[in-house]
Structures are given as structure tokens and as C-alpha cells.
Batch of 2 targets.
Target 1
Amino acid sequence: MTQSVVVQVGQCGNQVGCRFWDLALREHAHVNKKGLYDEALSSFFRNVDTRKSDSRACGVGGRIQHLKARAVLVDMEEGVVNEILQGPLREVFDSTQLLTDVSGSGNNWAVGHMTYGSAYREQIVDKLRKAAEHCDCLQCFFLIHSMGGGTGSGLGTRVLSLLEEEFPEVCRIVTSIYPSAEDDVITSPYNSVLAMRELTEHADCVLPVENQSLVDIVNKIKQMSHSGKPGSVIKRDSAIISGRGGLSGPEKPFDAMNNIVANLLLNITSSARFEGSLNMDLNEIAMNLVPFPRLHYLVPSLTPLYTLADVSVPTRRLDQMFSDAFSKDHQLIRADPKHSLYLACALMVRGNVQVSDLRRNIERLKPSLPFVSWNQEGWKTGLCSVPPVGHSHSLLALANNTCVKPTFMELKERFTKLYRKKAHLHHYLHVEGMEQSFFSEAVDSLSSLIEEYNHLDATKRRLMPDAPRLPIAR
Amino acid sequence: MSVVTVQLGQCGNQVGHELFDVVCADAQDGQRKAYSTASCERFFHQTTHGDLVARAVLVDMEPKVINQSISRAAKSGRWRYGETSHFSQKQGSGNNWANGYCVHGPRHRDMVEELVRREVERCDRLAGLMAMMSVAGGTGSGVGTYVTQCLRDIYPSTFILNHLTWPYGTGEVIVQNYNSVLTLAHLYKLSDAIMVHENDTVHRICSQLLNIKHISFGDVNRVIAHQLGSVLQPALTADSHGVYSRNPLGELVSSLACHPEYKLLSVSTIPQMPSASIAYSTFSWPGLLKHLRQMLISNTKMEEGIDWQVRPTAGSERTSSLTAPSFNTSLANLLILRGKDVYSAETGAFEDPALYTSWLSSQEAFNLWKSPVPFNKYEKSATVVSNSQALLRPLDNIVGKAWNMFASRAYIHQYVKFGISEEDFLDSFTSLEQVISSYSQLC
């Protein structure tokens, strides 16, 4: 069994991370009835006996003493981390896992990446190394951050390149929260594009998430539960936005949205943690979904969003779950994968679903989903027998699809609008180590990424002939 | 006498577990003592307490499946795996053949060889080795190929049979075609015979013959285990002089895989029906054999929906075609009959020279094994293991899809990262095109 370490950077990264740990504890409490520290728990938590003086970690198989999250929390202002440490999750982290400063990054990528990146390099590497040493077999780093700000975006991407340098063999899966068009941080396009370049070059996989999509999903669920129609009562704890049953008390404003992202991370790792008839490990995700090194942006979609309390609703629900995964309402960025080109798609199913259900639905949906010519059957599937809390089954779809192109093009446009006028540029150029070439290189990297997606899109309508086979002398 | 099985990867371990279940239940069904003894000797060794311990080595790069197999076997109460006969690591091969073959294989070579050596030494007499794996993933395919290579080096004169499970055509793993091509090309040089089951075909058997509504991998694996069991359980052969053959793998290989270019074996079994219906059905050998023969020549694996129009044509008129549904020419066939009145079964129709390629006489091409003991609750059952064109179209599909993907160089960087070059890919493609060409031309 392998372990993963979560690195949460910046305000957004830490808030989402906090929700993740809460829901992870809830999930394991639900499944682990005997209170034993088992392999599944050890993938994200250490078991520490605090009575012993050196607080050494206990091995798998014993009783749960004290769970510590395998996490590193980084923020350049103290507010969020302090809140976590005063909240119910304070026992899950110890002080050696935290790195904070006081003044924040002022929504400036350069301050995060250059100034703090250099100042805290040693400390960051040290904390990462400690977290890695606690692991028997470290498989993956999960980085959570936002793209629009200064710390998450700048320092977060600096941490990413440190991870590549220090731990080249460990997979790096990055969950990036992209700013929506109506973002209130004016310089978010600069921050995002500068960060994008780092993601393209140093991450193994990126799961882009847009705030606006999360808002839409939350509204959809709220609408459902308030519609008052008969048979529309949502089962308690089952909504993907709900944090009920976790440690934290009443929900705070962004909790609903952050719960969605937390659920995404839980579902991605479910097959690596729990058993199933067709296991899907984390290294298999990168292997199957990334055909070319730079095209590693995977659009996530989660279904079902909630379970109805009415048990008499028949199993048509299962097939509906598959159909929903491809509808644009369930994607976590504003995109429509059905009308763009699929390079590859992964379906991670949890719960009581058999291979025949999976095959039936793939056969049913395949004709309406355009796949690239050399990957007509580009499906990677995984079956995990343990369902998430509150549901009998669930599906996470990760699509490597050219529908990310519009998102990137929009981002580039917003960047160019500011950059043309050199607006706010001086804030960045004043930072030591920052030069104008960073900007031009970053936007070039984004342009060439968009071009690669364009190139693939162009093949969409054309019927590509099969490559001629090797001739054999008779 | 004894067969040592090496179960590799998730599929190999899951199918292997079902196989031991089937043969143990069949052997202990308590009919004939000689049969039970021979079967138990072949697959299990008995401890001093009388427990049956499978002659198996379980290998996987991550521990979940092995743990499950071992605990399920122990729970059955009838047999179990050896406590130390397994090897696993913490992290899998990531569906990457190169990771399995170039990294995990060599790294753990000594441990795996030691485990196999221990099992082999426990056998009074070794009939051969059987490696069970899938071709779609990373461990079964990559580590499996490497392990086969090592075993070939250590046991140069032992028979090695590879049992492969080919994945569903519609993706279980996106890079499954690459992994399949690399595996098959390498195994062709190492293995004595390659026996194949395809998930698509077995799935159809589950849905149309066994009437299973929600087919799980467990169901699929049980069908594969049943078919494999019907091949490997004790039988009386032409060379065994009235007792159960002590050299099953050797006789299988020498009957069927007589030419190095032709090593692919497929399996058809009749009857296959829901277990609840078996007690209410009666069978006759003429009926069973007629259907099985037509299944063979029309290349269907099910006794329903057989195309009776397909007929053997005279040798000179035969065309080799990959596209038109045509007659399935065999190089060699092994027919295995099990059950009541087996000595009265008329098998002349299988010796018809029209079924076979012209350069082998039908007496040499056709082989017959019999066992008077009913297998796995079926009063009468027949299996044909065939070295024929049956796998030609599926193989061609796999190579075609892999080649298309290779033309765009998609995913190649993932393999290169671990030590496989584009040259290696091209070599594998070339080997398999040669195999396809040889089988196409069989007439």
C-alpha cells in the first residue's frame, strides 16, 4: 500500500485542504468500524502514540492512537492556518508540518515565487523531506492551490518545482483552482498565466477546477432541495457539498464549494486505498491519461451530486450516473467535453457496480463522444467496491479533452488585455529576480499549449486513415 | 506429474485462485480414487496434517489482490496457498510494461526465482510450469514476461505454458494494445505454448449461455477456470498406456505446438450452461461432438448461434483472408472428452483432413485424450484446444490499434522513461506481423 502527501499552499489551498481532511476522516470512520489503523488509513494518516516521548509512528495493524495527516501546510499569512489550528482539526496537524509568514504575497505571483520561494526554500524542502520519510512507500504528492492569487499561485508553483527536483520519481498531481472571469483580483490573469507555465513544465497531472462551475453546482443542489417537489428530498449526508458528519461545526461560506474539490481528491484515491475487482492506482492515472507530456490537463466531473432519500427510485439511477458524468453541468470547469475531442478518458467507479454495468454504459455512450483517431477506445476504468459516504455508488470521470482550450484561450485574452497596457507590471518587476522575459515566456508557453490542442482538434472531423502496416516478406 | 503455477498481477492471481478452486472441488467430488489422487498430486501438495496446499507462487507489485486471494482460499476450508509462497511490493507497475519488465522484474528477480525453486523442489516430479497473467496491465504483462524469461533460463528443458487473458476490446486500459504487443512478441520466443482467453468472448458466454444478469469479473474468471480445468485435469492419452498421463504439459505442447511460428492456442468447451440447469439436461456424445466441431471450424466459442453454413473447402480453393468470415483452418487440435460412456464417443469427424493444413497429416494433427470421470458436475463434456486461425482476427486488431497509436507516438514517452526504445517497439511489431502472416497463410 502506498502513501500520499498533501501539500496545501495559500488561502484557497488550505481551505480546500482543510475540507479534504475533514471528509477523509469522515469516510474512514464510516468504513473502519474496528478502530484499527489499517492500510487504507495509512495512505493519508500516520498513527502516532503521543504518550511515548519521541512520538514515533506506530505501524499498520494496531489500534488507532492519534492520527496525524500526511500534509504540509504553507501560507504566507497566518489567518487561515491559525483558524485550522484552533478548529476541531488541530489534533490532526503538528507544528512541524506548518510554514507560515505574516505579511502575505499581496496577490503577486513574483513575491510568492521569487521572494518567499527563495527565503523559505530550505525550510520547505526540510518539511517535505520529513513528511516523505514518514512514508513507507511514497507514491504521490497532491498539491492544492489557486492560480489567481500570490501565495498559492507563486509559492505553490515554486513548491512544485522543488518537488520535481527533490523527489523526481514521485508523481505530482496538482489541483488548481482557476479564477473565473469575474474574479475580484485584478492581476489574477498575470498570476494564472505565470503559474500555468510552471504547471505545464513540472506537473505530472493537473486537475483544473473553476470557481464558477463550483458555484453552479452548489446552486443546482440548493435548488433541488428547496424545490419542494415530491420525491425530491435529498438524503442526509449524501450531497457532494455536504460536510455533515465531519468534525467541523456549522458550515462556512466557501465550504460547500470546497467540499466538492475535497470529494474529487477522495474519489481519485479511493481505488488505491480500498479493494475492488479492477484496481486503479495513482501512477496508472498519469500513464493512461497523458499521451504527450505537456497535455496533462484532466477535466474532472463527479456524479451523483446527491442521492434522493426516496428508496423507491429504480436503478435507472446507475445509467443516469454515467450519462451525467459527460454532461457539461457536472464538469468542474466551464467546458463541454461532448463537443470537443477526447484524447483519453478515465472512469473511476465506486460502490456496487459490476464490470457488465460499466461495459454497457461505455457501449451506450461511446457513439456520442468524439475520440481522437488513434485512441478510439481510449477508456481507462477502475472499480472500487467501497462507496463514498451517503451514496451506494459514485463515478469520477477524468477527461483529457480539448475542451480545456477555450478556458486557456480566455485566460490568455485576459492576460493580453492587461499586458498590452503594461498595467500593474511594475509591482512584479520590482521584485528581485523577476524580469519581463518571464511574462513573455509564460504567454508563449500558453500559446504553444493552445496550439497543440488546436492541432489535435483539427483532426476531429477528418476521417484519419489507418497507418499502413509493416510489410512482411512472403 | 506436478504443475507449478506462477500467478502474476491482478488478473493472474484472480484467475489462478478460481482455477485451484475448480480443480480442488472437482478432485474431491469423490468419484474415482485414481483421478482424485492424480489431480491432487498435480496441483497441490499435502502437508503432514492433510491440508492441501496449492503448488503456486503468487507475484504482484501491490499487495491488495494477493491478500484477498490468500484469505479467500483459506476461508474455503478445502485448500489454501502456502504461507510464504507469495511476493508483493507496495506500489504497482502503473499499467506500464516497461516499468514491469525493466524495473520491477530485474529488481525482484532473486526473490521470485527462489519462491519458484522452493515449489519445484517440493514436487516429486515436475511436469512443467504455467504462468498466468493478463496482457493489458503492467505487472502481469511486463513482470510476467521477465519472469518467463528467467524461468526459461533456469529450467531450459522444462515445459513452460503461458496462460494469457486478453482484455475487452473496448478499453480496460488505454495502453493495453502496446502492453499486449510487447508481451506477445517477447513471449513468442520464450514460451512453449501460449493459451489465450479473451474477456469479450468469455463475457458473451456468461451473458448468453450462463444467463448471468450482472456479470462480474468473478463470473468471467470462473468460466476461464472451468475451461482451463477441463484441459489440465488428469486424462488418459495415447502415450499414457492406460493410466492418467504423467506428462500433461509435455503432451499438450508436443501435440499442438509443433512449429515455432505457431504457438497460439485457443480453447472451446461444450456444454456450458447455468449450474442450476445441469441436473435437468442430458447429453449425447454425437450431439456434443457435432456442435463442438462446428464451433471449431466456424470459430465460435458458444454452442448457440453457430454458423452451420461454414464448411471445409478443398485445400486448393482455400483463400486466406482476414476480412471475410471464413473457415477456420487448424494446424493441430487436441480433443479432450470427459464423463460417462466416453469410450463410445465417435471422433472421426475431427480427423477429417479438410479441417487441417495440408502439410501435416490429420493423424498427426489430431490428438485425443479421454477421462471416464465427469468434470465439474457435467455428466459429459468435451473440450478442444486448438492451434488454429481462431485468434488471428483478434491479434490483428490488437496489432492494428497499437500501430495506429504508435504512428502518432502517443504515450511513447511513458515507456521510454523506463528503458524501452522506439526500436524495441518496432521489433515487437515486426515479430507479430510475422506471426499474423504465418497464420493467415495457413491453408
Target 2
Amino acid sequence: MARSPLILVALISLIPLLCHSFSPETPTGRRILVLVDDLAVKSSQSLYFKSLSSRGYELDFKLADDPKIALQRYGQYLYDGLVLFCPTVERFGGSIDQAAILDFVDSGHDLIIAADVQSSDLIREIATECGADFDEDPAAMVIDHINYAVSENEGDHTVIASDNLIKSDVILGSSKIEAPVLFQGIGHSLNPANSLVFKVLSASPATYSANPKSKLSSPPALTGSAISLVSVMQARNNARILISGSLSMFSNRFFRSGVQKAQSSTKHEKSGNEQFLTEISKWVFHERGHLKAVNVKHHKVGEEDEPAVYRIKDDLEYSVEIYEWSGSSWEPYVADDVQVQFYMMSPYVLKTLTSDKKGVYSTSFKVPDVYGVFQFKVEYEKLGYTTLSLSKQIPVRPFKHNEYERFIPAAYPYYGAAFSMMVGFFLFSFVHLYSK
Amino acid sequence: MKANIVARGISTLSRNFLTGSYPLRAVAAHRVWNWPSLFSSFSSSSSVHGELQTQPSSSTRPALLPAESVNTSAGARVRQSMSASETAGERTVRHAFGNVLAFFILLLIGVLAFSIRLFSVIKYESVIHEFDPYFNYRVTQFLTKNGIYDFWNWFDDRTWVLNSLNIPLSVETVCVFTAPTFSAFASWATYFLTKEVKGPGAGLAAAALLGMVPSYISRSVAGSYDNEAVAIFALIFTFYLYIKTLNTGSLFYATFNAISYFYMVCSWGGYTFIINLIPMHVLLCIVTGRYSSRLYIAYAPLVVLGTLLAALVPVVGFNAVMTSEHFASFLVFIIIHVVALVYYIKGILSPRMFKVAVTLVLSVGIAVCCAVIAILIAVVASSPTKGWSGRSLSLLDPTYASKYIPIIASVSEHQPPTWPSYFMDINVLAFLVPAGIIACFLPLSDASSFVVLYIVTSVYFSGVMVRLMLVLAPAACIMSGIALSEAFDTLTGSIKFQLLGYSSVNSQAAAGDASPDSTSAQSNALKPDKSEETAKERTSKKSKKKEKEREKEKEQVDQSSVQPRAGRRLQVLPLEASIIGVFLLILLGAFYVVHCVWAAAEAYSAPSIVLTSQTQDGGLHVFDDFREAYAWLRHNTEVDDKVASWWDYGYQTTAMANRTVIVDNNTWNNTHIATVGTAMSSPEKAAWEIFNSLDVKYVLVVFGGLVGYPSDDINKFLWMVRIGGGVFPHIKEPDYLRDGQYRIDSQATPTMLNSLMYKLSYYRFVETDGKGFDRVRRTEIGKKYFKLTHFDEVFTTHHWMVRIYKLRPPKNRIRGKAKKSKSVRNSLIISWSKAFPKFNAVSDRLNPAENEFSINLKKDCKDQEEPLAVKRFLRFYKLLSQGSEVGLVGYILLQAIFRKVIPYRDVGKISRILQYCDILVYISVFCSRRESRIIEFVGL
């Protein structure tokens, strides 16, 4: 009996730990499954993995056809992220298949796909499901005779040094990536109508996708800047996916090698791959660009409590707090483009919220002269950030019959007329009745 | 069983009521009425002087009681006769006896009116059929101050009072019994109105008729918590007060009339009927030279106070002075003042001076009038609807609505009624009304002219809109009450006269002789009676004739109508004819009662929300699908979720499911309804986008195809198309009609088959019986197997009457393009066109009537429209490449044929079993080519 308080104390001391691992407040998952074709990848790409584990991720390396691998057990996902460094796998082992991976994404988890030349249909299919179409020719590679990397040149100009990076601080970090990024692999195209997926590293206009070993008999299917080398996709549930056409760009060899673009004299000691991939994996694993909105408040000007209903032409104040996840804590999000709509079928009011730099966004406006069931809507979609979609329903009523203005200045002549008429009538009746 | 007993009880009660108490009343009245002739005959025979003495007393009575200035009424006659009688004591006793009798009759009428409406509660349960007070809370809170808003405040106060008195009544119970209570009030109001017009006898008859007129029952059964039930009471009461004021000239009643009008404005939009009918009557009175100060008192305060009060009702507001519906009242208001002025001037000027003044005023006045009218016309014409709101315009021009406002025309109760609906709703009253009109003309008073005007206008309006039968019903009851009362008066009077007359022939003869000899005053007093009597004969003849037409007993009518002419001199009918007439009238009344009880029990008591049907073995089958669906919505959806459905179900959804709807029965926003109509008529994807933009989470459709419930959404669908097309022109009605016919079978147009309404109604319908046979349209549906791409079926009620779908959320990911190499497609097209010529021969063998697809395909081939045929083929190919069910089955079948697992001739059978007739066509094409190369391509 004496032991039970001790166990209790031990359990209580464990609570913070348990809480930490289950906290829904921290969007950054810590457990990542890495599936590889063979375990040599673990050492050849060790620099990249080291950068991940140094940021606190627990990497679990498994062969893609390991019969024991599973993404979930008893309905719970075992991992928060998945890295597919297995371009040639035809069939996953264990319970994992294409549908399982897509379900993994659809339940809000992150995914990194690295394809390569001779990628299997499985990997291509997964990429297609995520919106990226790899070149159909399995032997095709991205070739650029102008922007190839001089140092890695083997004569076929398949190692490309590209610096066509997306201009987004939230995806690629605030420090500029100076050196070009080395790439060797297969290209893919994106559907321009697809609003969820965008190119992070795109090819130059001189690029084309073809089999370097054979002669070109027909024009290549993918050419120029339509080719995307590395793309990211943010699903509607904010799951993030990185699609890369090259596994080798993650390798230690490309990380370490110096780079010099053809037709360019500047020689960089170190390629931009490490910085690029580290920064983008920070984004993919939600260390940046993850927003949350809390404390949506609205009230009449001069009041504190939230009313159940507004009246037309009321002045109201609306405020919301928006924070960004920094990887370890929630920091105030600072921007000047957050807008609120006062919406019934269409926005009646659209106002930009002003930020106090501490995360609180607020504005005040007048309720339009229309009654009905309105909504406060914040639809914040910004490149690289998670989508904020808040809506709060509020009815708006018309004036009550006793809320109209009692005396209208413009009507004073009429009041005068009415009262003078009354007085006149009284006098007239008096005179009429009592004269004589 | 219980219901039956009660029904029988009520019917016997009401039958006893009519057959028993009615003649009794008539006899009682006539017993009194018969006295004056006897008395007068006695007095005239004794001395002319005595007769002259009684004359002033009878003429002073109308002066004392202006209400009874209509001295032709039976009651007036009763009192006249009483005044003629010497003993004041006897008079008081008779008076009191008549009053007590009338009071109890009225009480019983009230009980009858209340209890005949309780069938729904007995047969079903105490539910509100139409909509709930919760809705009014929501509406008052959120959307608008309704017309019934003030009524509602009052109502809530009352329930609160009841609760504070510790009477255990829920709001719902009160609501359920509101309509029957008010119909009892309405029948009392009818009594008072008719009493003002033609005396208490007619009043009682009219009240009894109104208490059970089916048209009014349809709107006021227990649980139909509609404002019309209250409004009819307000309407009749307003008319009563107007007539009362007209008869008395009392300013008190005039003020009360304005308040009653205000109550009517609060309760129903039909108040415009009052504000147009009363001016019409005033104008009629002025034109026929019946202007009096009483008319002025009845009208002027009503316009001034009534308009002021009406403007206080939020939904009316400034409309009370701005819309054309009210213009008539103001115009007449001006006219009555002008007329009053003219009368005044006429009184103070000499005739010659007056003539001069008239010419002077007219010449100046006409010029001014022209200018004013021109300005008025210009102002009115500048507004798009000429100042008239759509509903009113459709009253004046019955074709207006169908031409311009489909939303008004779409409501079934806004359609013109059919002839049977008159017989259904007012039954024998339709025959009695003409007799009542004639009775009103003999003689014509201000009050009776008003009633005539009322019946004429309401007959016209009811002919425009079936809903306004409700307004016709009170008028018809009043008229029939007058007709019945007059007929009974005459018939029972002559029976009495004959019975008593034969015993005292002398006095009768003396009476006959005395009348021509008496003074001019005497003959004047009798003349109306004579003319009235002949009228009565005619009316009774007429009513009997009509009734005979139904009963095919014409000979008796002729006999009974020929004979009275002989006895006209005595102002009485022969005894036999009178007895037969009374008997036939009672029979007529009995028919009416039986019909009313039947209508109350069977036709109008079913709550629209719970349906029943008789099973073949006589049992009762209850369809409670609506409440099932609303309960599902209430328990399984979020509070803020919005539900889209056609607007008919809006109030019910708000009230019973407590969810916000996009459109409801308050059709104030045509654009919203048109948007929903457009969404329902659009293909799935477009509809999804519309609904998504409206924040709709659930879509509710009503489908009667499984159980044969005819007023479902598919039958209303054309109205959705029309209303949608009225605002969004890309929806065109002809796209949904095949050769002008609305059909949902295989001949239906592709637009129809792809519309959201079709898909949501018939999704998975074929799984019920394997054929997809729609019991309402009595045909097999055109498109049986399809999948929904943007909607998920979440709930379907037990009898499939309500189906609820949820909008799919937008896809989490957007898929990349599925690219196929062009070379394969090209080769397929080539091989298809090669196969083309042989197609006809093959498809002829395959019973092409099987489905729409093969027919169209064949037609395409005949028309040599190759591109279209190729398109259809490619669609199949697409199905195949997407791995869909149809494509897969087709693929397996093809494989089987070409591996010779199944013989070619069995393909048709198999695909028919599998219900994939599309495949049949394609396979036949392939087989006709007998080229395995194509199969290899397809096998890709």
C-alpha cells in the first residue's frame, strides 16, 4: 500500500511528458518514417537526415518492401511525417499501399517524395494524386545545355544548376540562397489550374525532358519553364507535400560539391542544396508558415460583451488573434493583409484588419443597411501559409419600430402645420360656437 | 373506431341541429310574424282609426332603433308586430324568449364550428400542421418583422397569462386550438353581419352555414396554425362593424371599425380586399343617390384611422399610402368629401343659385381634375409595375402571373379553381347564392347592397385564385343564409297561415278585403311585404329548381311553383307545396351537413406533414417521413448548418428541424428562390458550386416516386426551372421538355436527366424494385445507374419521401492530369469509323428500344452525324479508362466474348441482366467488326 503513492507521484511527473507528445497545439510532428530502396541511402544522404534529426525529429529508416512496416496501428498513426526515398519500389511491404499513403496525407500528415529516373509507376501514381505529373518516358531526364553545372558535367548536361527559386520567405527562409541548386533527375509538370500545388524550383526556359541515351525522334513532351524540378503542395487540410524529381539532390555528394553554372564565371564553394532542402523541409514539417487564429471577438463599439444580434447601422468592432508556429512556440503573426468580410451570400463589408504587432488584428465598421443572417468571415490564403478560414454567424435585425428617429428636422414644417391646424380648429370651433 | 363514433356523433348532432332547430326557429319566428296580419285584420275590420294609431308606433321604431331601419327583416317584423300588439308584457316575454333561443343557437353554432374542426386531432394527434411558433421567434429575431408580428406579441402575452394562472397549457396546444376557436368567433361575426343585413333569422342560418363551410374548414382545422383562420374572422367582423356604422351612424362603431381593420391588416395581406371593397360600396351608394351622413361617418373615419393604424404594421408601413391597392380608398375619400360639400351647399343655396354654382365649379374643377389626373397617371406609370404589386395584378389580370411572375403562378393555391372545387368547397351554397342575391334586392338597402357587392367581387376573385375561395365562403354563407331564412319564412308562414287560416276563414277574408280599403299609409306598409313575398316565392322556386336538377324531380317543382300563383292574392303558398318545400330545403341542408362533415373528416383534416393511406385490407398506413427527416436533421447536423430545399418546406425545416434554410415560404426574395431553382435544374457540378457559395451543407428533396406521393419535387420541378430561368436566363424551359412534354423516362432530355433534381430524386432508386418504376409518373425512369460526384446521400426516410444529401467538401488534393497517349485514341477513332457502316444491321437485332442510348446512337448513325457518335464512343472509352464499374463490366464481357467463354448471342442477355445496356451497344459494334485488334486497344 505504501508503494501506490509513489507510483502516483511517478505517473504525475510523467504527465507533462505525455501531454507534450499528444498536444494538438504543436503542429510539428516529431516522428518520421523514411522508406528507402536500400539502406545505402541512409549513409549517402546522411547530411540531409542529420539536419532533420538535429532539429529534433525521430527518423525511422525502413526498407520500402519491409513486410513489417505500417503507418497506423489501432487507428492511430504511428508517424507524423513520411519520406519516400524509394523511387524504384513497385510495391510497398506491410500494410502500406498507395491508398494508405494518400489517407495518411488526407488526415493531415506531411510527405516528401523523391522520384528519380526509372521511377516506378507506384511513385508516379502517388505524385499524380498529389498533382504532379512526371514525364511519362521512364528513361527521360531533365537536360539543359545552357544551365548545366560545370563541375558535375559528364557530357550529357543532366546535372543542372538552377537558381529559379520561388520568391517566398516563408517557404525558403529569410536568408537568401546564393548558390545554385544542383539537380539531376526527372522533370514533372503541374496543372496551372491546380491552386494547391506550386513550383519551388523550376527549370530554365532552355530545359527539356528526354532520354539522354537515345536520339530525339520527336519533340520532347516537356520543355522549358513548364518543367518543374521541385514542387510543393499544400492540401486543403494543410498537409504539406514535397515532390522532387531527383533523389540525388539530397545526397551528400551534391550537398558538398562546389558549383559553377555554365556560361557563368562565379564559382560557389558549396552548392545551395543543403540550405534549400533544409529550409524547405522546415516548411514541409510545419516549422514555418503554420498559422492559428484564436479569440475571435466582436462587439458593439463601447461595449465588451458579444451581442446575440446586431441591428442595422450598428458600429461594431471585430478582432481576432493570429499566431504563427515557430517550431517550438506560437509567435504573433505580423502582416497587413488580413481581411474580414461581413458576408451574406456576398460580402457586404470587406475590411483590412490592422495588426498591433502582438498578434491581435482588429477593425471596426458599420453594419450595412441590410438585415438577414450575416457571417464574419476571415478567409486568409497566402502563399506558403496555412489557410485560415474562420466564420462566425450573426443575425442582423432591422430597426425596431421605436428605434426610428422621433423628430426629424426636415419634418418640422409639417409638425408646425399639424399643430397650428389643431390650434386653429380649436379656435375656430370656439369662435363658431360662442360668437353671437 | 373512436374517430368514427365521434364523427357520427358530430354529424348526427349537426344534422339534428339543422333539421331540428332550424324549422323550429323559423316556426317560432313565423308564429310571431303571423300575428300582425291577424291583428291588423282585426283592427282594420273594427276601425280604420285604430289602424292609423298603430301606424306611428311602427314607423317610430326604426327611428328609435336605427339598426333595424331595414324594416323588411324578420326580426324587425317581429318587433313591429310586437309594437302593434297591445300588451307590452307579452312583447317583452316574446322578445326575451327569441333572444335566449338565438343565444343558445349561437352557442351551439360555436360549439359546432369548433368541434367539426377537431377531426385532425382525433384522427392524428395534436400537432401543428403547417408551421410552428419557433419559426416566428426566429423570424422576428433574424429576418423580418412579419405581418403577423404584432399578432404574435399579443399571442405570446396570452400564453404567458395562461401560464401565470397555472393552467397547464403549452404554446403548442394553444396554437393547435387557435384556428377552431377563431372559426367559432367567425361564425358569430357572420351572425351579427347577416343580422344587420336581413335580421336575426338569416343571421343564424348564415352563422350555421359558415360554421361548417368546407372552404373555411380547409384553412382552420385544429393544428393548421395559419393566419387565414384568424383573418376571416377579422374580415367578417370588420364588415359587420362597417354595416353597423352604416346602419346606426354611430361614431363609436366607426372607430371600432378602424381598430378591427387594423387587426385585419395585422393578420393577413388580404386586408386590401377590405380597403377596396368598402370604397367600392361607398361609391356605389353615392352613384345610386344613397349618400347620407351615416355613409360619411362609416367611411371617413375608417380611411383616416385605418390608414394610420395600417401604417403602424411593419410589413405594410408606408405601403399603406404608396401602393396602388390603397389608391381607391383615397380617391373615394376625396369624392365623398366633394359629395358631402355639394349636399351641404345644396342645402343652403336656392335651386337657381345652386345651378350657377355647379356650372362654375364644374368648369374650374374639370380643368384642375384633368391636371391632377395627368400627374397621377404620370407618377404611377413611371413605376415599373404601375404601382401594383404582382399578387394584386394577377388578381385583376388572371394571365399576368403566368406571364411575368412564375413564383406566384407556381403556387397551386394561386391557380384558377376548377368547377369541382366550387362544389367541394361551398357545396349547395352555390345554388342558394343567386336566391340570396335576389332576396337582397327586395328591397335594396345600403347593407344588402354591400353584401351583394361582396359576393360579386369575391366570386370574381375566387375565379382567379383558388386560394380566395376562402373569401368567397363567408359571402356565400351570408347569401345562402338569407335565402334559406327567407324561404323558410315564406314556407312555414304559409303553412301556419293555412292551418290557422282554414279555422278562421272570416278573418283571413277580412284581411284580404281590408288591405285595399285601408289608408295609403297602410298600403305603403304592406307593399314591400307583397313584393317581398313574390320574391320569396321566386327565390324558393329557384333554389328548389336547382336542387331538383340534382334530384331529378322536376314535376313536383312545377306543381309547387304553379300553385302559389293562384294563391298570390293571399301572399301564401298552398299547404302541400309549402310542406314539400320545407321538406326539400331540409333535405338540402342535410346534404350540406353530410358533405361538410365528410370534408372535415376526410378531405381537410390530414395534416400535410403526416400522410395516411388505406391499405388493401382496410388498415391504415401512416407515412411519417417528413417528421422522420426533420428529426434526423435536428439530431445529426450542426446548429449553424444551412439546408437547401425547395421553398415549400422552408418553414417546416426551420420549425421542426431548427435549421436555417436558404428559402422559405415567405417568398419575399425572388432571387434566392431563383438561385435554388437554378441549382436544382443545373448539372451536379454547377449546382455544387451554387450551393457552396450559399454556404449550404445539406440539400433536401422530397420524392414520392416510391409510394406515389404526387406533390413531390419532381412534379414541382418545372416551376423551379421557370423561376430559375426567370432570373438566370441560361436555364431554359425547353431544354427540360421533350417535344413540349415533361417526362422523366428514357425519352427525357439529357438536360433533364443530368439535372440535380433528377439525380437527387432517383439516386439508387433502381435498387428498390430493380426497374426503377416511378409510381407517381407511372413510368420507368430514364437514367437508372449513376453515381453522384459532388453529393453524398446521408439520409433517406423509410418511404423514401424525403432524401437528404450532404455536399461533399472540396477535394483535399487536386489530382494531376491523367494523360493518355494520343496515338491509341486516334487508332480507336479510326477503327470506330471503319466499323460504322455495319452498325445499323447489328443494333437492329438487339432490341434497340432497350434504352435511350442505343436509340440516340442509332439516330446519330442514320443522320450520318459521325462526330456525335464518335463522341459517345469516346465517353465509353473514358469510362473504361477510369476503371469505372460500367467500363469494367464491359471490358470483362469483351474479354469473355473474344476468349469464346460466352457465345456472342448471349451477350445481350447478360448485359440486360446486368442492366448495362450501354455496353450492349458497344459490344455489338465491336463484335460486328470481329477484330481483335480493337479489343487489345481497349484492353489497355
